[in-house]
Amino acid sequence: MTDTASTASAPTAPVEKVRGALLRYRVLAWITGVWLLLLVAELILAYGFDNKALDFVPIVHGWVYFVYLIMAIDLAIKVRWPAGKTIITAIAGTIPFLSFWFEHKRTQEVKAQFNL
């Protein structure tokens, strides 16, 4: 006979692992947001003014976003976010300023959930 109360929610990672994953996510959310704003500036310069001064930004942002995805998924696994919440958080790194707002909201949620 199984206890339904114990199977209702999957266990989360230890608090120290959650704390580390949250810190990594927060750092990458900010770095991704800054590089995304630089990407917007690069696109304006390239297509609006035919200036290729920032042509390295798309490649760097792409790699930074990839690391952001890894950190967001790592945090999601540790705190047991549902798939929809994880996907929305991942997409936040593709829309200017949204990564900053999502970082703030997700940090509040995780801190409240784990008393950090």
Automatic annotation (TrEMBL):
Keywords: Cell membrane, Membrane, Transmembrane, Transmembrane helix. The chain crosses the membrane at residues 27-49, 56-77. Residues 23-107 form the DUF3817 domain. It is found in: Cell membrane. This is DUF3817 domain-containing protein. The lineage of its organism: Bacteria, Bacillati, Actinomycetota, Actinomycetes, Mycobacteriales. It comes from the Bacteria. It is a multi-pass membrane protein. The keyword Membrane applies. Pfam families: DUF3817 (PF12823). InterPro entries: DUF3817_TM. Its main location: membrane.
